Amino acid sequence: MHDQYLMNKNISVQYAYKKDGKGDRHGDQAERMLAAQAKAHGVQPTPATIPVGPSPAMFGAPTAAPVVPAGFGQPNGSYQNVPPPAQNRPPPPPTTPLAAPPS
After folding, report:
1. With pLDDT > 70 as the criterion, what percentage of the chain qualifies?
2. What are the Cα distances from residue 15, in Å, to 22, 30, 48, 52, 97?
3. Which CA distances in Å does 7 have to 12, 22, 52?
């Protein structure tokens, strides 16, 4: 999307800086050559996983299954929780007419 416009603003896309802090960017000629060789040899890069927060398992705590509130279990593939059709529903409660406002 480099040099395209999004909402009347020009988009500039650049490679990220490398971690070593020398000012080099990813995607240089050497990295493209290594990626092409890895692809030719069938090597797939593994994506890095980013932990969301500290896990109890990280501190040696036993992990338990989460408690699921009633009515929020796994779907069983049937439609038993669908309300009955309108003809089988009980009639609504009778309504009382409102009194006339005082004058």
Report:
1. 61
2. 14, 14, 18, 25, 71
3. 14, 34, 32
pLDDT tens, 61-78?
A: 666 677 777 767 666 555
Contact 57, 63 (CB under 8 A): yes
Contact 38, 29 (CB under 8 A): no
> What is the C-alpha separation between 90 and 3, in angstroms, rounded?
64
* Contact call for residues 32 and 25 (beta carbons, < 8 A): no
Single-letter code of the amino acid located at 36: A
pLDDT at 84 over 80: no
**Alpha helix segments (H runs only) across the chain:** 29-40
Higher-pLDDT residue of 81, 40: 40
